[in-house]
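Sat 14:20. Reprocessing the chain from the morning session after the first attempt stalled halfway. Input below, unchanged.
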Amino acid sequence: MRLTTRSSYGIRALVALVQDQGDTRPVSIRDLAEKELISTVYLEQIFNRLKKNGVVKSVRGPKGGYMLARDPEEVTMLDVVKAVEPPDRGEKCLCGEENCEKGSFCASRKVRDEVFSRTVEVLSGLDLKSLSIGQKNPVA
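Finished this time. Tokens:
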């Protein structure tokens, strides 16, 4: 599992969405992009993935935009990362090999597996509601 700028931007924009949504009104990509200093085109791509994976839903029309598809406490950071990042394609072992010859006996692979396991645990324990409480955007 890789955490890239796509994950970072998705998380930032979703926290901003929760803060701006308030009474569950849709928020435009343009507003989110301006608030978080993210390219509108790139953020649209991220939100298309979030929509496809059931994290957000879109509302058409002049007052349209995006809304959460679920309550903020039900959306974990693992949901976000899995939605926006491409699936792993057998990441390289920490020793640098694509398909490590040592297989399950490789100490490096055990470390990688433990890091992955703990990353999933941490991401599963963080939800949008807890991240959005008390966050302030210095640019806004």
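Strands lie at 56-59, 65-68.
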